[in-house]
Amino acid sequence: xxxxxxxxxxxxxxxxxxxxxxxxxxxxxxxxxxxxxxxxxxxxxxxxxxxxxxxxxxxxxxxxxxxxxxxxxxxxxxxxxxxxxxxxxxxxxxxxxxxxxxxxxxxxxxxxxxxxxxxxxxxxxxxxxxxxxxxxxxxxxxxxxxxxxxxxxxxxxxxxxxxxxxxxxxxxxxxxxxxxxxxxxxxxxxxxxxxxxxxxxxxxxxxxxxxxxxxxxxxxxxxxxxxxxxxxxxxxxxxxxxxxxxxxxxxxxxxxxxxxxxxxxxxxxxxxxxxxxxxxxxxxxxxxxxxxxxxxxxxxxxxxxxxxxxxxxxxxxxxxxxxxxxxxxxxxxxxxxxxxxxxxxxxxxxxxxxxxxxxxxxxxxxxxxxxxxxxxxxxxxxxxxxxxxxxxxxxxxxxxxxxxxxxxxxxxxxxxxxxxxxxxxxxxxxxxxxxxxxxxxx
Amino acid sequence: xxxxxxxxxxxxxxxxxxxxxxxxxxxxxxxxxxxxxxxxxxxxxxxxxxxxxxxxxxxxxxxxxxxxxxxxxxxxxxxxxxxxxxxxxxxxxxxxxxxxxxxxxxxxxxxxxxxxxxxxxxxxxxxxxxxxxxxxxxxxxxxxxxxxxxxxxxxxxxxxxxxxxxxxxxxxxxxxxxxxxxxxxxxxxxxxxxxxxxxxxxxxxxxxxxxxxxxxxxxxxxxxx
Lengths: 442, 225
Hints:
The structure holds two protein chains of two kinds.
Chain A: H1 2-65, E1 70-76, E2 81-84, E3 94-100, E4 109-118, E5 121-127, H2 130-180, H3 196-245, H4 248-280, E6 288-290, H5 292-308, E7 313-317, E8 326-328, H6 330-347, E9 353-360, E10 365-370, H7 403-413, E11 417-422, E12 427-432
Helix pairs in contact in A: 1-2, 3-4, 4-7, 5-6, 6-7
Chain B: E1 2-6, H1 10-22, E2 26-30, H2 33-42, E3 47-51, H3 59-68, E4 75-79, H4 84-92, E5 97-100, H5 105-117, E6 127-130, E7 133-136, E8 142-144, E9 147-149, H6 153-164, E10 170-171, H7 172-180, H8 190-202, E11 211-214, E12 218-221
Parallel strand pairs in B: 1-2, 1-3, 3-4, 4-5
Antiparallel strand pairs in B: 6-7, 7-8, 8-9, 10-12, 11-12
Helix pairs in contact in B: 2-3, 6-7, 6-8
């Protein structure tokens, strides 16, 4: 800050001196021009009226234009004073300086003078450059005061700004420290100024929101995982104890069952990892446009024989009008739809009809999976998206409890909306996608 | 076949060495990424089984260095990192297949077989034949013993993949990838159901079954032996 002020002062000084020099030299030039002009007038007078004319002009000029600005003198070649208010002949010709002796009313002062010969006489015209000096002094003074004011103002503004900035930075650091210390609830204040600090603070707050959301999910998930992994591990332990006590043939059977349990555990862990990685990333480099109609037709064909074995049906009726292309990770979205279809098949019960549908949303497809099963009570339709949440209090061993958590993660990665609604009767899961343009960088 | 296993976990490595040796392969083992690279550069092998995370040099870097040195050795990645992105990354770096730990040994064997025979496969063929079963790849028509078999789209796709790999075991995971493009394991019996539908059309009406199930590993199609 001080350095900036010092530089400012130096720059202002240089500019001031330059201006002073220009102004004084302009005024001096003007003075010289005026003196030169008088010279011409005197030459003119001498030519028209000779020595007398010259003397008259000088007498007149001394009387009317003289003190304190101008002074005139007319001398013989030998230096005898003839006329005018300059008393002694100059010791130079051309431009020079003469000092007028102090009078009773005036102090002695230096004057810019020009001496020259007109006819048989020596003529001196002098003029004070007091004006130039005075104006220069005034300019210099003005510039000095202005410079001082600007420098002080600069220092003050800078000080306030930096104090403000460092206060905000300190607060930022304190907030982040507090977050690192475990308090994820703190947020940075946003002022009404909308300056860079507010912009950064808003970004940081958004990150903190996401962080606390992630941490809350993580905490809940960790508890749920621990809980959910305990029961298969328990079963494995029992199976292994049985195997140890059993005969050779039974042992193989027990070990097969251990293998099944272990596969299930692996599946669960893989799914958890996959969900967390889908949630953690917002990389869309693998996203591409694709035909949703084709995917739904394909899925209906794939699952028709599967649900038929449970006396269920699955049908896909293509949309009436044209539908925009979907944009996203094809395989990921396929998994999302498979999870929804399998949920419907699992919970809608025998005889249920599952229908897949496609419609046009806001420049992107809307996809739904509908069943005619018992549905989900209003108050639980949000909760079922939580990892390991199971609709029925009794342990439902048919699923990992992660199917809808995966659906939610994939939808979020695609910025798509996913809702469960009452289909009266049954349940409808509706995925509202967003167009490709929504992913382009702002 | 000469196989190099690059795996720092002793238990996993021993499991692989035992299994592959029993299958009649000659197996070498290193526990460090740099050793794997230098071994492969100076000792020609037929297959490299490469762990992703190893001391010295990670598997991906080993593979990139190998490919940069113009080595064409087939590589199967083994990893605990099972996400799709890892998989794509591994395949992009020049890996030929990818297996997520823990895995069934049969899954690895099936993939090794598929991988090491792949280059010989004729891609220009328009007709596949197994015993008396014929599949026309252009018209999608299936015939067995001169009898026309009506197949649904997914059944046809399944049969084509089986017949292209006739004599080899295909695991459920491989079928899900190749027929359905699923990179995850659905909860429902998608493969089993379609396989059972296919069998009821291809095998049931005939005396000799062609599609075989290998317990705990997968399916294969082959002529009676």
